[in-house]
Amino acid sequence: MIKNIIFDLGGVLIDHNPEKTLYAHFRKEDADIVLREIFRNPLWLERDRGVVTSEDILREKKHLIPQEIYPRVEEMTNDFFPYMPPFEEMYGFVKELKEKGYSIYLLSNVGKEFHRVKKEIPVLELFDGFVASSDYKVIKPEPEIYNILFEKFSLVPKECIFIDDVQKNIDGALKAGMHGHCYSHGKLEILKEDLREKGINI
Fold first, then answer.
1. CA–CA dist 65, 70 (Å, integer)
2. Concatenated DSSP letters for 27-43?
3. In CA terms, which of 53, 74, 147, 174 is 20 to 30 Å from 194?
4. What are residue 182's phi and psi, to 5 degrees?
5. Do residues 113 and 79 lie in contact, with contact meaning Cβ atoms separated by under 8 Å?
6. What is the pLDDT of residues 98-155, one digit of tens each?
7. How big is the CA angle at 152 (ends 100 and 132), to the nearest 5 degrees?
8. Could you give the domains of the chain?
């Protein structure tokens, strides 16, 4: 029986879409540079691991960013959360799960600024606990991060389901013994239907 619902943050609870954001604010050729050099740079995952900072990445790539957009890129790089609005329908969904007795947790690849901004994401007030990758120097889908979640909150893997928008992170959850649902489709009704099929009262 599933008792615990574990959510990813970006792409599931909030709209993490650097492509959409950057193309809305910059010319395509400039946005492509910023995506390649900053947000799609392999170092960005090391930022989520907590071993480099946004400032480190920006300092290394500064000479590649067009000078006229650099101040805006610096602002975005240091704090992208204002450009990631919550998915409003998720608040009601999580609230219903809580009211029906499920425990709710977060497992996310996220930088250290998460702890500064989490109070600004309304749905997170409903959560029972958080595992932020940068706190532990491990990232999804590395096996250690799932074990940290289980140990920190005394969870039984087979009693958990993980909802993430990246299939490899779901694959990692399945290997760790959890159930999983890849939310890359972004459709809440599809998610609800799958949860019902897995025996969750929603």
1. 6
2. -HHHHHHHIIIIITSTH
3. 147
4. -85, 115
5. yes
6. 999 999 999 999 999 999 999 999 999 999 999 999 999 999 999 999 999 999 999 9
7. 90
8. 4-15+84-197 (3.40.50.1000), 18-83 (no CATH)
